[in-house]
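Assemble and predict.
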Amino acid sequence: MRTDFATLALAATLAPLAALAEELVVPDGIMDLDGDPAYGAYLGGECAGCHQLDAYDGIPPLHGLDREHFILAMLEYRQKLRANPAMQQVAGRLSDEEIAALAAYFNESE
Amino acid sequence: MLLNRRGFLGTGAAALSLAAPMVRAQGKPRVVVVGGGAGGATAARYIAKDSEGAIDVTLIEPSRSYYTCFFSNLYLGGFRTLESLAHSYGTLASEYGINVVHDWATGVDRDAKTVALAGGGSVPYDRLILSPGIDFVEGSVEGWSLAAQNAMPHAYKGGSQTELLKAQLEDMDEGGTFVMVAPPNPFRCPPGPYERVSMVASYLKANNPTAKIIISDPKESFSKQALFEEGWNQHYSGMITRIGPDFGAENTSVNPADMTVDIDGEVVNAAVVNVIPAQKAGLICESAGLTEGNWAPVVPETMQSRMDENIHILGDAAAQGDMPKSGFSANSQAKVCAMAVRGALTDSQVFPARFSNTCWSLISENNGVKVGASYEATEEKIASTGGFISDTGEDAALREATYEESIGWYAGITSDMFG
């Protein structure tokens, strides 16, 4: 079941990526940042106010998310290349280090 | 993983034995949480989960089944069942090892650091978290008191009051009048009264289309006003009249005996009267000497009371600055508070506080809108750092997607509260 949820989440996360990829600016080195999962666990509390961690009910689940795809999705929201204003608001105040911390946490979490 | 540390659903004798200091866990710091809603349940769960047994957590909440206030308007509109709003504390007890005590916390002895229970005895704490929600300001609507809440329900606390208002709505005579007396600022769930009007109108349009809705509102303006008014014109044309302060709404009184509402001398015969009085912090904050005016001031970085560093106050009861009084806000504040409490009691890592809020409202079937913001802690208050709101004129597909998102949020936040 978890794989199914993760796939669903990934599909939702990546759907608009292809059309927008040429506009996305990926900061140098963000993919190589060593995110702090403890900080990610704290920051992830904000995500858990809306997202279930392992179930899909209108909002994608977050546990087990692929690190690189998560980072790209957050960058898209931060740069307002994706439409959801709630997620633009959340990602808009995340630094590169904070995105990496969240990516590390969700990637490791079960 | 945290099983069997007094993981019972405390009742009666169990609650009393819990209260005796000699049965406390050996040397573990003790956190007591009063109120099992969006603030209290979340704080209890995060402290228990993240301390991995190092902190003894007791949650005091009178209700065995908790009915969320959020989404209760959707029940009035016929878009949710009452059962879908009910949640139990069983998982918090069995999976997180939280001592869930179903009793009323009646007072706080701040010197002895104990919480008194209505059922007798008291519970000691090292840190106390109060998340009692709201109570009503007596006399704020002339003619109304808690004694009249059956004739004229407030339905502003979840559960039986919501059920009562729904039953009265369904019993309305054909062409009858539904009157809402809206509250002054600040109050729980700023868009709540207006979402409620939308949901009542949705029900009446389908079941009693000649009925009318009158809102007596002491405020000049209200949350998401342009969005609601656009929706009311589109979907409920001619059904809803809002009387603001410019037409004397501040001079409103009610008579529960003959079901009339007097708005600045105009007497309305009503089939249903929904009185949402002025609000204040849950009574225990006042009795513990933690309030200034109607609310309990807090230190933004930790949600500690400004009157007592061993007490934290969450959610609607707190005077914190810019965040609206909402379940989302309480849930957000609870996670900052849980981190601060763990840091103080177990030296765990503490990160800078950050808060957020989003409030969804349903205007008509599949027609959802939202407003939200991010917040940071300053010395003075929790301060907004930017926000967003749905636009008027959005297409139906976006509104439906927003409504679907709100359903996902409900599942997410209740899972975050109750496990």
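Chain B has a mean pLDDT of 94.
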